[in-house]
Amino acid sequence: MRVPIIGGNWKMNKTINEAINTVEDLKTKLEGVEGVEIVIFPPFTALKMLQGLLQGSNIGLGAQNMYYEEKGAYTGEISPLMLQDVGCRYVILGHSERRGYFGETDELINKKLKTALSFEFTPVVCVGEKLEERKAGRATEIVEAQVRKCLQGIGPEEVKRVVIAYEPVWAIGTGETATPSQAGEMHRFIRKILKELYGEELANFIRIQYGGSVKPENIKGLMKEEDIDGALVGGASLNTESFAKIVKGSRRL
Ligand code: 13P
Fold first, then answer.
1. Which of 20, 52, 80, 210 has the highest CB neighbour number within 10 Å of its CB?
2. Cα(224)–Cα(21) distance, rounded to whole angstroms?
3. How far is the CA of 104 from the centre of ligand 1 (A)?
4. Is the CB of 43 inside a 6 Å radius of any atom of ligand 1?
């Protein structure tokens, strides 16, 4: 059985002090919670401070982005070595905001994924269609192409560590969540592609998170879908009370 994974993607929010306060509170609220893998993705500037605070807790530390080279003349980028250095074990790759605002392509995300795997991160690879693509009946076609291109050249041993996040762009930050059945249907479809690529056993091993306006009120409904293995939470992860409720609500009881 797949252990659900809940990620809190803080995006471009929180100063170091705010991050420390949030994590101290979160540690208390989530102490002893089992049956779910918990990760937070704070901004880069807060990572080092949080590394020490999270030591020995049940909350993992991740980064929101990473470049695919180890070092060199890449102004403004962050390398896998630097992220390892501050205790990150997870990294989000290809978030729709990276794709939409900063022009990230599936090819770039694929390169980042290969590097992330070689550095033994647990990568969270984001896919998802835009509203106009869904309206045009192209949602599955778009997501299929993203999954196949992002996973190009990734072998069966490595893919086990990959987490896929299905985040329909129209549901991100809009308050409009995909219904459990809409999300469940796309997750089943993604798992079908994974079966074609890696066979049944591996496909059933890989976790697929849902992201897009996840809240304490809708997490349980989403988790009833067999192929939804947790959530990547944006807005509601900034508040410790709602994030803790989402984490607790995600456990398969
Ligand atoms: P919201 O939960 O704010 O819709 O954001 C989702 C998201 O983009 C998580 O990566």
1. 210
2. 32
3. 18
4. no
Told to judge if 95 belongs to the known catalytic residues of this protein, a careful annotator would answer yes
Helices (H), the chain: 16-30, 44-54, 80-85, 96-102, 106-118, 131-135, 139-150, 156-159, 180-198, 200-205, 216-223, 240-249
For residue 96, the ligand 1 atom closest to its alpha carbon is 8
pTM score of the predicted model: 0.97
* Residue 213 amino acid letter: S
Using CA of residue 206, residue 212, residue 216, residue 218, what is the dihedral sign?
A: negative
Take residue 163 and report the two structure tokens written for it. 């987490």
Tell me how crowded residue 55 is: count the other CB atoms within 10 A of its CB. 9
Q: Which atom of ligand 1 sits closest to the CA of residue 173? A: 4
167 counts as catalytic: yes
